């Protein structure tokens, strides 16, 4: 039996491949996206300013590989969240989106 594909904005990803979202647009989020993009299909980068992230994705050469989204959209689309936030901001994020 084969898994049916799930469609995301970055293309078709096999259902067995979890969609991962990096939450945070600072140095840690930027570094994680640079490390994960070559290895993860269906990668989402989320921050308070998704338009700025879209420009950064283009600078990194990951257009079409990394999708950008606001926090709410990323939480709903992703199977796995990686928080790249300072502790206080991570607590606020969890309170808002849990």
Task: List the defining traits of the structure above.
98 residues, alpha/beta, 4-stranded parallel sheet, two-stranded antiparallel sheet, 4 helices, disordered N terminus
Short description:
The protein has 98 residues and is α/β, with parallel strands linked by helices. 40% of the residues lie in helices and 24% in strands.
Q: Counting H and I runs of at least 4 residues, what is the number of helices?
A: 4
Structural class: alpha/beta
User: What low-confidence regions span 5 or more consecutive residues with pLDDT below 50?
Assistant: 1-8
Q: What's the main sheet like?
A: 4 strands, parallel
Distance between the termini: 34 Å
What is the number of beta strands? 6
User: For the residues shown, what is the average pLDDT?
Assistant: 88
What helical percentage do the residues reach? 25-40%
Strand order of the largest sheet: 5-4-3-6
SSE series: EEEHEHEHEH
Strand content: 15-25%
Shape assignment: globular
How much is the radius of gyration in Å?
Answer: 13 Å
